[in-house]
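User: Some background: our group keeps a shared notebook of sequences we're curious about, and every so often someone picks one and asks for a predicted structure to add to the entry. Today it's my turn. The entry only has the sequence so far, pasted here. Could you supply the structure so I can complete it?
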Amino acid sequence: MKIRRSKNSQKTLEKEIPASIAAPGTVDKIIKALSGLESDIDSLNENLSDMKKQLNQKAQKEIDKLREQVIQMATKEAEVIISEATEKAKSESQRILTTGDVNLKDVQNKIDTKFNEAVDHVVSTVLKA
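Assistant: Of course. Here's the predicted structure to add to the notebook entry:
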């Protein structure tokens, strides 16, 4: 036993408790607290793992959505390019057709104007022979 004096000068008696008696209850409390903390950490790790999976799923969905949008945009752009090329080709073919018609009429006119001369030349060649 220890005798201890307080500020009021009164004597107080304190009994020292051996560590072997106090420790088991305290140790049990500490072990239970640590076990609870470990369970909480495990639970948090599981929640974190679930959250990671959910985040990955959401990211994959967003990637797929953006991929579809890019494909749609590229398809529309390709359609515009094809449409413009088609219009340009039609315009060019129409120009070529018009030029061909003009050349055909020119050749036809030359044939018509030279036909009589050609007939006369053939007849004179045949008659000379």
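Suggested note for the entry: Residues 19-128 form one domain. The longest strand covers residues 2-5.
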